[in-house]
Amino acid sequence: MKHSYIYLAMAAASFMTACSEKEEDQTPAPVTTTELVATINSAQQVPTNNSTATGTFAGTYDSSTDQMKYTITYQGITPTSMHIHVGGPGTGEGQVAIPLPKTASPITGTVPVTKDQATKLLSNGMYVNIHSSTYGLGEIRGISAKSKRMRVGGFGSEQ
């Protein structure tokens, strides 16, 4: 009988130890991507012009890989070059930070992004500029901004 109590006590201790161990951390992995958007038009060009050309920019910056995937669409313009420049709203011609291919719309790609460029991209400090033969310094442009779509726990929602 004495042995039964010892075995019962050992079993209870083992059970309590097993139950008290923490389960694996259930915290979801941090979101490492930020969605970026821009409406591209002549009203944002400095100085503005009368072009009716328009476009859109949609990008996803991934801080874990320091890369940005992007899609640019445009209409009403025959581009001679395209870039992402350093500069915020209302600034003049900024330094070219990321050259983009001059191809037919839509344009998609992935580019490396430095930490400094990422900081500017995420704080309205860079813009997409599409140049033409009519407007050599840029016909249309759009400031890159964080999308109002927010990811919470892996799910997207409109804000």
From TrEMBL:
The keyword ATP-binding belongs to this UniProt entry's keyword annotation: no
Positions of the CHRD domain: 32-149
Keywords: Signal
Top-level division of the source organism's lineage: Bacteria
Keyword Repeat in annotation: no
First and last residue of the signal peptide: 1-18
Family matches, as PROSITE patterns: CHRD, PROKAR_LIPOPROTEIN
Pfam families from the UniProt entry: CHRD (PF07452)
InterPro entries: CHRD
Name by which UniProt lists this protein: CHRD domain-containing protein
Organism: Hymenobacter cellulosilyticus
Lineage start: Bacteria, Pseudomonadati, Bacteroidota, Cytophagia, Cytophagales
